[in-house]
């Protein structure tokens, strides 16, 4: 199972947001997309979800260009959580999560309940979405993606609004989804989370792919200095590394 970009170039407005990006992501693993503000992370994630038309090159699921997949088929296979997701309808938390089954046109009660449990939403299930805190809303929208049981879970900064406990729970859930065969692709600003939890890291700078490989290579001190302009070194053991700057 693979999701790939080949020589992908995307212009957004007058800006070349991505230039000549080629990579291949495997199912059954967690990929982190990292880079400074404006580097093209969200653009790449949207393109891999089939939501942006390339100016050149292509994004493909297995051998099929995403541009050729029917939107409902694509939505069934690729779940996408945008960076600033909003709630269009003021429905209850449980009903919002149920909307994740729309591409399947079924109730999928088991998947819905499993997503509600995974994101610890049981106590909030009857709450109107308009009354949720930022982190509660983020968990609900992520549960909606998980309820669709996509082969690919693409999430733009899914941990940013979550407290530590919910970050740990979500990372465990994403790891178990990957162990079950799903491909997980996350935009992450926290390089320690990428180092400790991803199998594969892509680093973007000014729309170009600078590094593509295992976290210890893609997030080396040299690359951090080049891309973020920060002197930093890693401490600790693999899987529990901390980044010290300065
Ligand atoms: N809707 C848009 N219209 C025009 N330009 C855009 C649009 N969205 C993004 N851009 C530009 O495209 C480039 C890449 O943006 P993108 O959102 O992919 O960056 P990012 O790496 O996700 O940044 P951040 O870390 O700040 O979220 C930036 O120069 C940005 O200003």
Automatic annotation (TrEMBL):
Residue ranges of the TM segments: none
Superkingdom field: Bacteria
What is this protein's function per UniProt? Part of the ABC transporter complex HmuTUV involved in hemin import. Responsible for energy coupling to the transport system.
Nucleotide-binding among keywords? yes
SUPFAM superfamilies recorded: P-loop containing nucleoside triphosphate hydrolases
Natural source organism: Altererythrobacter epoxidivorans
Gene3D superfamilies named in the record: P-loop containing nucleotide triphosphate hydrolases
Organism ancestry: Bacteria, Pseudomonadati, Pseudomonadota, Alphaproteobacteria, Sphingomonadales
InterPro entries to which the protein is assigned, alphabetical:
AAA+_ATPase, ABC_transporter-like_ATP-bd, P-loop_NTPase
Q: Which Pfam families does the record cross-reference, listed alphabetically?
A: ABC_tran (PF00005)
The protein's name in its UniProt record: Vitamin B12 ABC transporter, ATPase component BtuD
């Amino acid at each position: 199972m693979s999701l790939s970009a080949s020589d992908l170039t995307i212009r957004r407005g007058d800006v070349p947001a991505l230039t000549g990006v080629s990579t291949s992501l495997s199912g059954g693993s967690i990929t982190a997309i990292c880079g400074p503000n404006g580097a093209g992370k969200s653009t790449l994630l949207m393109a891999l979800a089939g939501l942006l038309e390339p100016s050149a090159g292509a994004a493909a699921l297995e051998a099929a260009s995403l541009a050729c997949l029917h939107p409902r088929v694509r939505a069934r296979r690729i779940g996408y959580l945008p960076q600033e997701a909003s709630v269009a309808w003021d429905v209850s938390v449980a009903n919002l999560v149920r909307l994740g089954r729309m591409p399947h046109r079924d109730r999928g009660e088991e998947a819905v309940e499993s997503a509600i449990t995974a994101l610890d939403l049981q106590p909030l299930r009857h709450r109107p979405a308009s009354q949720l805190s930022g982190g509660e809303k983020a968990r609900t929208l992520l549960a909606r993606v998980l309820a669709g049981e996509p082969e690919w879970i693409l999430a733009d900064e899914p941990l940013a609004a979550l407290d530590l406990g919910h970050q740990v729970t979500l990372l465990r859930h994403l790891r178990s989804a990957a162990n079950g065969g799903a491909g997980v692709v996350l935009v992450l600003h926290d390089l320690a989370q990428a180092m400790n939890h991803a199998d594969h890291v892509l680093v973007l700078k000014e729309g170009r792919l600078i590094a593509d490989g295992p976290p210890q290579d893609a997030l080396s001190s040299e690359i951090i200095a080049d891309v973020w302009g920060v002197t930093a070194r890693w401490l600790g053991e693999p899987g529990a590394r901390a980044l010290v700057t300065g």
